[in-house]
Request: fold
Amino acid sequence: MNENINYDIIIVGGGMVGASLACGLAEGAEQLKIAVIDANAPNFDWDKDSYDMRVSAITRASQNIFKNMGVWENIVEQRVSPYYDMFVWDAGNHDRHGEIQHGEIHFDSADMGEADLGHIIENRIIVKALYQRMQEMPQISLYCPTRLEAIAFNQDKTCLTLQDKTKLTANLIVGADGTRSWVRQQADIAVKGWDFDQAALVTTVKTEKYHQDTAWQRFLSTGPLAFLPLTDGYSSIVWSTSPGEAQRLTEIPEAEFALELEQAFESKLGKIVSVAGRAVFPLRLFETLNYVKPRLALVGDAAHTIHPLAGQGVNLGLADVASLITVIIDALNNKKDIGDFKVLRRYERWRRADNRSMLVAMDGLKRLFGSELSVVKGLRGFGLNMVNKITPLKNLIMQQAMGIGGTGPGSKLK
Ligand SMILES: Cc1cc2nc3c(=O)[nH]c(=O)nc-3n(C[C@H](O)[C@H](O)[C@H](O)COP(=O)(O)OP(=O)(O)OC[C@H]3O[C@@H](n4cnc5c(N)ncnc54)[C@H](O)[C@@H]3O)c2cc1C
Reply:
């Protein structure tokens, strides 16, 4: 006899975004009965001296969201790396006299009167803190690892069938199952993507010179190369390039890789002293045509996936979370059905505008810095140097990047 269990909300995908949604909802609306289903059980057993290959630059807005759901302290206790400066420069262009001219821009938290520009945090640390919080909350039921078999959208409930034939029903299903979202496919929601033939090589390195708690990014014509500061002088590397080149970079001997990396980075931090494991992630850039349907909402990478060059992917996902929580709590306060299309449309309208402008900006940046046309290269360098000299404009750009530029979501979590 298989069970039939009812929830208010079922979240498919317990990654950084799905788990945050569960914690924030449980914090903000204690009466909700929430299920979180993930196909994989996270591994919390790691060597303390190692670093996760996957890290995220977490903005001030996301930090506030984590604070509101009671996980920020735990994250800080585990390990975080604040960064105080950001230095971005391009590969340069030959001027009329044959000299190489670089465009560069430097952001400094002190110039902005901010304590820092953000934090580099290992993804596994964020997920661990969120799972520990979920386990403290009796209204959250965790199903992981659990595979899903079918989904049926009915008028007054959505029904999920697990692989062991257990049936779960809910007023609202949230797809937080990442860029290849199963929920999105089952709901027949199409995506609109940009042609984006890039992959990211990621690894952790130790450099000869200290990284100065600075996030460094060099734009090469093949894609951006970022050195993100970790503790003890280590840096997390995200090197975006063509898929073939990324593959080659994982296969060459370590010493050869270290030398190529140092050269691509213009030896800004001296020699590469050690290299941990290398891995490649395909990069995508798309947005779904709809974020919601009756009894369904998509959040995070399931709804939109962007290039990591501005470190905004999970930050946009967390802004989705904060907006959806606000919309759900408002609906509960007004005795409305949380799975109603009209209720959910408010979330879609709210987030689509922000997410789309970031997607378009990322596509534009990638094209701008990928161009080999010398006139574009000249203007690009000139533009970067100009912006670098105009402090108010620079501060405005950085405030947007930190998610503190406007009246962003997150303030109504409690
Ligand atoms: C190289 C790289 C660097 C990046 N750096 C940054 C950065 O600095 N800052 C930033 O903001 N963003 C960054 N991003 C983007 C960020 O990693 C993503 O936006 C973020 O991981 C999305 O989180 P998510 O929870 O939506 O999806 P995911 O992290 O993909 O989580 C999805 C979850 O769903 C589960 N799942 C999948 N399918 C199913 C299924 N069928 N059933 C049940 N569960 C399922 C998975 O097991 C997983 O736990 C980077 C991305 C890349 C590739």
In short: The domain at 4-74+122-194+285-368 is CATH 3.50.50.60 (FAD/NAD(P)-binding domain). Residues 12-18, 37-40, 56-57, 148, 176-178, 182, 200, 202, 238, 281, 300-301, 308, 311-315, 317 surround flavin-adenine dinucleotide (CB under 6 Å). The mean pLDDT is 89.
